[in-house]
Write a structure and sequence with these properties.
The protein has 9 helices and no strands. With 272 residues, it is mainly alpha-helical. The chain is globular.
């Protein structure tokens, strides 16, 4: 009898311990990211800024991610147009599809989906690259030469991500709207000029600013989180894989959670 009574007690204790450990781990990560940001702010004030390193990272982050982002945006626009078209056709609301898709793409879908793809590709790449440098003691060699690894490794990647992500999302908006337009014309039978007119009259400057503003925060989440996990790799090559996985997961979760609060913030900012 005592053994059976102890089972739920032990199980509940393990659950509480597990939750507490997760909270402590999250607090530890947030504290480490805060310390990293302090070092970034310190080194940003120093001169000179290594612009050639920023340009190099722009190529790897921006140009090499272009095809992935455009395919994601176009596919999203096409699927949304198809779903809205078939759903609203039952109620005679097919004419509202261009408005709904264009506004959703610019405000939400393009920033969130494109940045999730960047978190998967760029975040994993940054974490694994910096982690490999940490394991092979290249970061220690940079310190031994009297150079800050934050200045040469972290800052160029953060700046490049902050520059590349909004540009990629802007292109993603265009390709997503073009993909939705193709579906609206060929699948739903709408007039192309009617669709374009509804799209351009619906989307306003504040809608673009909302999407691009979110993208800046998402790019910051991706770059800082990936750099943090890469700089704090432990356990050799196995630790590099763990850090890469954690960087992608944490940055993706931060994008999804941050999207809710950013949506509320931009709504109160522009709708008042």
């Amino acid at each position: 009898m005592n053994t059976e009574a102890e089972i739920p007690v032990n199980f509940g204790r393990k659950v509480i311990i597990s939750i507490g450990q997760r909270i402590l781990d999250a607090a530890f990560v947030l504290g480490g990211i805060g310390i990293l940001l302090r070092y970034v702010y310190r080194d940003l004030r120093r001169k000179p800024l290594h612009l050639y390193l920023v340009v190099e990272q722009l190529y790897f982050i921006g140009v090499k991610s272009l095809s992935l982002v455009l395919i994601t945006a176009m596919s999203t626009g096409m699927v949304m147009a198809l779903q809205f078209g078939f759903g609203l056709a039952k109620f005679g609301g097919k004419l509202y599809v261009p408005k709904l898709v264009a506004l959703s793409m610019v405000r939400e879908m393009a920033p969130v989906f494109c940045c999730l793809m960047l978190a998967a590709r760029v975040g994993a790449g940054i974490a694994s690259e910096i982690g490999s440098m940490k394991v092979t003691q290249q970061i220690d060699a940079i310190r031994a030469l009297g150079t800050s690894p934050i200045e040469r490794i972290v800052i160029p990647r953060i700046l490049a991500c902050l520059i590349a992500a909004p540009l990629l999302v802007a292109l993603g908006n265009a390709f997503g709207i073009l993909g939705s337009l193709a579906v609206e014309v060929w699948e739903l039978g709408l007039d192309p000029m009617f669709c374009l007119e509804k799209m351009f009259t619906t989307i306003q400057v504040k809608d673009y600013l909302t999407g691009i503003g979110k993208t800046l925060f998402f790019a910051f989440f991706i770059s800082v989180t990936s750099c943090y996990f890469g700089m704090n790799v432990r356990g050799g090559t196995q630790g590099v894989g763990t850090a890469t996985t954690r960087a992608v997961v944490v940055s993706s979760v931060m994008i999804l959670i941050g999207d809710f609060f950013l949506t509320k913030a931009f709504f109160f900012m522009f709708e008042r």
